[in-house]
Specification:
With 240 residues, the protein is of the alpha/beta class. It has 2 domains: 143 residues, Response regulator (Rossmann fold); 62 residues, Orthogonal Bundle (Arc Repressor Mutant, subunit A), CATH 1.10.10. It is built from 12 helices and 6 strands. Strand 5, helix 6 and strand 6 form a beta-alpha-beta unit. Helix 3 packs parallel to helix 4 and helix 10 packs across helix 11. 35% of the residues are buried. About 5% of the residues have low confidence.
């Protein structure tokens, strides 16, 4: 799909084809065109997978427009988006579609496996959260499970949600971490895990030069001198 806001006119609510096979209509929200294209190629062969990608969006405003126009069964939602992030998409869609007969369910699909990202979108109304390391077949299975009302999480992430909702205490505020943008946090975690700049660029679909700029910004904001100090800082805060 060349246009991020392209929609499909198929009637909302269609969940099976003429042969009775399961079908699900999906909107894909991610700010990286290459990633959207890859997911579309992996899951969007409708006759084989039963998944029909009826719209795409690259930022919050586009996402709200496409979702309200197409009313899909499931939205694959990135956590970090221009315009406010996945949580803002959830908030605005909930307000606009409060009286909808058919629920639109959200499955977060993100490179981030940080507890605060997982908990944030689940509290915002998402039915599940999987990381971008998921296989195509597992992603298709997760989409159908979310469509059916199940909660779906990558194994490691389920513990974050259980711990968060079992506790009545709000998570402590980390003023140093709050100085960083969402993208800077992603780069920080990958640096702390030992990834090279080229590996980070490939995983986040950005250039090596952009990675270097983010690292410089993180070091400056945290008043650190090098990536070794950054790794110790992140490990002490259990961000790795």
């Amino acid at each position: 799909m060349s246009d991020p806001t392209e929609t499909n006119a198929t009637a909302a609510g269609e969940q099976a084809d003429g042969a009775g096979r399961r079908r699900v209509r999906v909107v894909l929200v991610d700010d990286h065109r290459m990633f959207r294209t890859g997911v579309q190629a992996e899951i969007g062969q409708t006759e084989q997978t039963g998944v029909e990608v009826v719209g795409e969006a690259a930022d919050v405003d586009q996402a709200v427009t496409v979702i309200t126009a197409t009313r899909p069964e499931v939205v694959l939602l990135d956590v970090h988006l221009p315009g406010g992030g996945g949580v803002e998409v959830l908030r605005r869609c909930a307000a606009l579609m409060a009286d909808a007969e058919q629920p639109v369910r959200f499955l977060a699909l993100s490179v981030s496996d940080a507890a605060e990202d997982v908990i944030g979108v689940i509290r915002g109304g998402a039915r599940g959260y999987v990381t971008k390391t998921i296989t195509g077949s597992d992603l298709i299975d997760s989409i159908f499970r979310v469509q059916e009302g199940d909660a779906v999480f990558s194994p490691r992430l389920a513990g974050f949600v259980l711990d968060a909702f079992a506790s009545t205490d709000a998570p402590p505020v980390d003023e140093d971490l709050d100085r960083l943008t969402q993208r800077e946090r992603e780069v920080l975690r990958l640096i702390a895990r030992g990834y090279a700049y080229k590996e980070i660029a490939k995983q986040l679909f950005i250039s090596v030069k952009t990675v270097e700029s983010h690292v410089s910004a993180v070091l400056r904001k945290l008043q650190l001198s090098n990536r070794h100090e950054l790794t110790r800082w992140a490990t002490a805060r259990r961000l790795v």
